[in-house]
Each structure stands twice: as structure tokens, then as C-alpha cells.
What we know:
Ammonium transporter fold; globular; two-stranded antiparallel ribbon; mainly alpha
Amino acid sequence: MAFNISEAAPDWLNKGDNAWQMISATLVGIQSVPGLVILYGSIVKKKWAVNSAFMALYAFAAVLICWVCWAYKMSFGEELLPFWGKPGFSLGQNYLLAQAELPESTQYDGAGGVATAMAQPYYPMASLVYFQFVFAAITLILLAGSLLGRMNFKAWVVFVPLWLTFSYTVGAFSMWGGGFLFHWGVMDYAGGYVIHLSSGIAGLTAAYWVGPRTQSDREDFTPNNILLTLMGAGLLWMGWSGFNGGAPYAVNLVASMAVLNTHICAATSLVVWTCMDVIYFNKPSVIGAIQGMITGLVCITPGAGLVQGWAALIMGILSGSIPWFTMMILHKRSKLLQKVDDTLGMFHTHAVAGLLGGICTGIFAEPKLSRLFLPVPGSRGLTYGGPGGMQLLKQLVAAAFIIGLNVVVTSIICLAIRVVIPLRMSEEQLLVGDDAVHGEEAYALWGDGKKFDEESI
């Protein structure tokens, strides 16, 4: 079989960048499948293990189909509105094999705005579409963490493409795809707002409309396998190297800085959260350590390639203490938060930590690193003086936009779905769990309501 190698490797193709982009995308994909599939399936009560894991698995597959059929171009394509792109297929050979293109940013030189393209990636569009898909997929899977243990699976099947289409694409285009927040100079390095703040707020909102778990499940929701939970958490942590390391779209200095900062912040946050547990409860908690790890990873994400190492350390201290306070203290005192059943506390671990990371980016973003990420003059954190205060204001305004967007759109989607499909499972399904919903159980062990048959021995 004849094969023209020169055509398969054009002059513009950088094989190193292309390899790293595909590896990074796969690392992020592994965070979801099997990472969050394992974590969700093991951190919940045994009777919900299959359903929880399946919600994550389904979302991953459904998002990919929607992504290549219309959602990628709504997020990164031609502008339809200042906050939304035009839908379109990302399936054609000519499109996917062409050199990847990034949105243009508007620089102001004092004599008027001049549109200047960011550094063009040296790999095909197929790699970029794949990389951005895994980001979109993990957002829906994180959102699911707020709804485990009671959402009707049929409603979830419909919710995933609707929320991707009408919420995620708006946030992604506005922040990354050439929308109004992108041009204004808001900095969200790898998704602290687009992914984590969005999923945390949308998860809390959807949890309100779906309703709570049964009272018995809320009172006793013991993980069915903590060791497997640790395995899922480990895949999530290590996969974050691709999450933040692939965001510069090249194997460059920023990628290296981002990866190291990611692990500094996560490790610090885990240790701080554990210390807080020991000080306040006199017991170190494995689940608490995992939550601290996650808040550290989330907090550093919007600024991973924009801050120096010392700032990553400070962000780790903040992400290990502030979300701990909102989850362990404030949550128990808030009537609103008590009313809404956020199964895995995604509001605290993702919305609070994501907002904290965005604010810290507005404070600690280093000018040189900021210019490498976003060529908008004056992009710098408050710590470095000059227009740094303006950057912090931009970060706060962008957070308000993302919060408002997700509260409104998620509410509309949930209200629309429940007209035709119940959002919550039936009482029988809620009582029995996986066997009633899927006809399957996580562990084929004797017990759990089955009668002992002496004649079978």
C-alpha cells in the first residue's frame, strides 16, 4: 500500500506539539473515563454505584457526538453573537486535517483596536477538536456529581445535550472562543470558570429542581469502596497534568510552569484540608483529603500558567481552607444550602474553588506570563500594580456572568424537561437503587435484602 509521508506530515506540522496535545487530551479523558467513573461508582452508597458510574460514562459518549456535530463550532467557530458561535459540523476531512486556528484577540495600541491572532498551533484541527471535547465532557460529568442518587436517568439522557448546547458553548465561546469576555481580557487559563464554576453552579441549580435524595440516603451515604475512590481520585490528580499542561496549545515554557504549579497547589490544598479536619474534628479523613486535592486542582486551573510558584503555594493554602469552611461550617448553618441536596458537594469543591481561583488569578497573574497567554496589553494581577486592579474587576464580572448564565439556563432546561420526563426517579427506584433502575448491581454478593436459602447449600 503506497503512502505519501510528506503529505501526512506537512511543513507546518510540529510533531512534538501534536503529540503533546493528543496526550494531554487523553490524560483529561482518563480523568473522566475511567477516573470519575470509578470515583463516582465507589464514593456513593452501594445501591447507587452502577447508576452513578453510568451517568458519567453516558455523558462522555453523548458529549462527543454533540461536539463534532454542532457544539465545537458553537464554542470556537464563527461568531453568531458576542457570546455564542454558529453551529456546524466538525467532521469533514478537509477541515480536520487543516492547520488548527485560534480566535483573534483585540489589542489596543492607543490608536485604535488592531486584531491580532494568537500563536497559531502547529498541528491539525482534529487535535484541537479532540482536546476541547474532553474539557466539555468532564464539565457535564462534574455537574452529575450534584445529582447522584436520585436523578431519573432518562432525564439525564436529555439534559446532557441540552446543557452542553445552551450553557457550556456560551461560556466557552465568551471566554475562549473569541467572545466578548475574551476580547475584554478576562483570563481563564484552563477552565476555572468555563468548567468548574459552571459545573458547580449548574449542579447546585439542577439539584434544586430535581429534588433531594431519600431521607435515609441523605443521613447515611457511606462510600461503598474508599480504596477505589482513592484510585479514581489519583487518576483525576495525575490527569490534571494534561488539563493544565495542554492549555497553551504547545510544548512550551508555560506548559511546564503550569504542570508544576498544578501539583504544588493540589498537594498544599490536600495537606491544609487534612490539617483543618484534624484541628476541628480530631480525625484525618480520606474523603476530606480527596476533597482538598480537588479544590487545589480547581483553584489553580484558571491561573496555572499565569502565576509564579509562590503564588501557587498561597492558592493551595486558600483552596484548602476557604472551601473547607464553606462545606464544613457555612453549609451546616445555611438554610438554602441545607435545602438543596448537592450529593458530592460540587458547589464547594468546584464553584467556590473555581471562583477563588479566578479571583486569585486577578491578584497574582504575573505580567510576562499573562502576555504569553493572552496578548491584551495591561493583563496582570493586582499584586504587580499598574492596571492590575482592572484585571481583578474583569475576573469578578466574568464570574458574575458565568453564575447568572448557569442559574438561568440550567433552570430553563430542567423546567422544560420535567414537562415531558420526571426529573426524579420513582419512589420504588429511590428505595431499591441500581437493581430497580438498571437491573444490575455493582457487587454480586450475598445479602442486601436477599433471603438465605438453606436448600441451595
